[in-house]
Design goal:
heterodimer, A: alpha/beta, 11% strand, B: mainly alpha, two-stranded antiparallel ribbon, flat
Chain lengths: 522, 98
């Protein structure tokens, strides 16, 4: 078990090195993670589907290629044999894709998302599909139709959302890497509350082909990991132009891994966004954030203050644009082409009534709320006041970023205003739930990249705090440069990774109560 | 801007093809009123001189060669359908005969 413990706690970069040196086999690595999933996922519920057979087969193939040596072994991708989990919003051949919704229960995609094709080309074994808020709509994973994921730091608390499954899988050592999607913070906010790393790339930097769309002008696939370097490695696998996504940027991918390996902030200007800290932010979040600034200053960065006065409209504009796009994207779930079909209990059996009954039964409350809100915002008579105004706010937010990036090379803020809250705490108050994304939404509105990394534990509750870095569009490399420096300075203080302080989840065979008391012991 | 009421929600639910019970309409109307109230400030944020942004990083003229790309077989396309008949999607009556 000790051996396995070392395998599951290793970074993807460390696993890749040992695999290349043939100190370990890919089958051992995949099996160690499958064992871990079997041991702890009953408590965490990060996975909706475990893909053991295929993952082991890919691992065995990698091992055989390495053992044979020669040109094929030389040509293996550096992450070949390093396993990964995939958010269940991203379609995969050979595994179900549910989007966390009853309307797609048991559905199998006839095609792979581009990012999944790239994982397969790199021969990275796919461990399974991770839980999420239904259609990625939420900040806690409680809106999943298949039950919530729990935060490995405290099983009574939310793991963030919508990508709580991916973040929790990585935090609980069930996978070294995962894919997420981020429309308003769904990669970064779960990263913050689980003490992990998550990156939303520049809009268009990673193909969206095969990600089930919520809001097409905001959605972005990105990496989830435990270290900054691991996110860079994964970003490098999935990034770059894809002709099947017409919003995919044609630019060549920068060397993100080199940026993470040569992190340096000497002489860099790092901008604190006046509007994204202070009032409304938990004291422990604010404290860890201020310490991060001091560390960066000590490493030679210049800390400047910038103001983004229109960010105060970002949340409101987001909750008009996102539901508008979602209401039209989700019109395809009509009970005809895929997924659920429910027949009305009485009356005429027309397609319209079948559609109404199917969508009533197949969609959860939050999805219905957003579809109705979006339909409202797009209605004749309201369009200009709502959707039109929100699009203008988008311009104002972009201008705020332009002005801020004239004064600073990267911007910094807390990722989320609070640490992980209790399951159920905000479930019946949609507006309180939406406020979790106040610091992450501006990046989606403007298309700029953002990275969240662990900043430490809050004094008042001992739970992880996230620090967010933002860079200009197409400058994702800066996030990795600064993130790597901050990570190494913080880990030097902590004496190791933050996740070393997380309670060790006990075996599923032992009482769940034991794990719960761990969670409460901070 | 006008507030959203129960009749509005009932109308919108019909447009969105989501059947809703009376209880659901009541609850949804209450929740949406709060949300709409909180987002209405956006209409005051920008003047007429501010252009709208529909897309964060605009690309223009994204074309590909006019050749047949990847296509699905009929079998693949129908693989997830709730009902199919002789290589086609099978749907209930399109028109209400009354």
């Amino acid at each position: 078990m000790t051996e396995n413990n070392e395998l599951i706690r290793s970074s993807a970069a460390a696993l890749a090195e040992k695999l290349a040196a043939r100190e370990i086999t890919a089958v051992e690595v995949v099996q160690a993670h499958l064992d871990r999933i079997a041991a702890v996922d009953g408590q965490v519920h990060a996975f909706l589907h475990v893909n053991a057979e295929e993952a082991l087969a890919v691992a065995a193939e990698v091992d055989a290629i390495r053992a044979a040596g020669g040109a094929e072994a030389e040509a293996l991708h550096e992450l070949a044999g390093v396993p990964i989990a995939v958010k269940d919003l991203i379609v995969t051949i050979g595994q179900p894709t549910t989007a966390g919704s009853k309307i797609l229960e048991g559905w199998h995609s006839p095609y792979d998302a581009t990012v999944v094709e790239r994982l397969r080309a790199a021969k990275m074994p796919i461990l399974g599909k991770t839980n999420l808020d239904e259609f990625a709509m939420g900040s806690s994973t409680e809106h999943s139709a298949y039950g919530p994921t729990r935060n490995p730091w405290d099983l009574d608390r939310i793991p963030g959302g919508s990508g709580g499954g991916s973040a929790a899988a990585v935090a609980a050592f069930e996978a070294p890497l995962a894919l997420g999607t981020d429309t308003g913070g769904s990669i970064r906010q779960p990263g913050a509350v689980t003490g992990t790393v998550g990156v939303k790339p520049t809009y268009g930097g990673v193909s969206r082909y095969g990600a089930i769309a919520m809001a097409s002008s905001l959605d972005q696939i990105g990496p989830v990991s435990r270290t900054v370097l691991d996110s860079a490695l994964l970003h490098q696998v999935i990034g770059g132009h894809d002709p099947r996504d017409s919003t995919s940027l044609p630019d060549p991918l920068e060397d993100l891994v080199a940026a993470a390996r040569t992190g340096n902030v000497e002489g860099m200007r790092i901008g604190i966004i006046k509007e994204l800290h202070g009032e409304g932010y938990q004291a422990g979040v604010e404290n860890r954030f201020n310490e991060a600034l001091e560390l960066l200053k000590g490493a030679g960065a210049e800390i400047v203050e910038v103001s983004c006065p229109n960010f105060k409209y970002a949340l409101g504009a987001y909750y008009l644009i996102m539901p508008s796009e979602a209401s039209s994207n989700l019109a395809k779930f009509d009970g005809v082409r895929f997924g659920l079909r429910v027949l009305p209990e009485e009356g005429p059996m027309t397609i319209e009534r079948v559609m109404g009954a199917t969508r009533a039964a197949g969609f959860g409350d939050e999805v219905k709320r957003r579809i109705i809100l979006g339909t409202y915002a797009l209605s004749a008579g309201y369009y200009d006041a709502y959707y039109g105004s929100a699009q203008k706010v988008r311009t104002l937010i972009q201008r705020d970023f332009d002005a801020a990036f004239a004064k600073a090379d990267v911007l910094i803020s807390p990722t989320a205003p609070t640490t992980a809250f209790k399951l159920g705490e905000k479930l019946n108050d949609p507006l309180a739930m939406y406020l979790n994304d106040v610091a992450t939404i501006p990046a989606n509105m403007a298309g700029v990249p953002g990275l969240s990394l662990p900043g430490g534990l809050a004094d008042e509750d001992g739970l992880p705090v996230g620090v967010q870095l933002l860079a200009p569009a197409r400058q994702d490399a800066r996030l990795y440069r600064v993130g790597a420096v901050l990570e190494s300075l913080l880990e030097a203080q902590w004496g190791g990774p933050l996740l070393a302080k997380a309670p060790s989840l006990t075996d599923a065979s032992s009482a769940a109560g034991a794990a719960l008391s761990h969670g409460g012991s901070h | 801007m006008a507030a959203i009421n129960r009749d509005d929600v009932a109308h919108l639910a019909r447009l969105a093809h989501i059947e809703m019970s009376a209880e659901e309409l009541d609850r949804m109307a209450g929740e949406l009123a709060v949300i709409v109230d909180s987002v209405k400030s956006v209409s005051e944020a920008a003047g007429d001189d501010v252009p709208a942004t529909s897309h964060p990083i605009p690309l223009t003229n994204v074309f590909r060669e006019d050749v047949v790309g990847h296509t699905f077989t009929a079998e693949q396309s129908l693989s997830g359908a709730p009902d199919a008949y002789e290589g086609r999607f099978k749907v209930p009556a399109i028109l209400d005969e009354d």
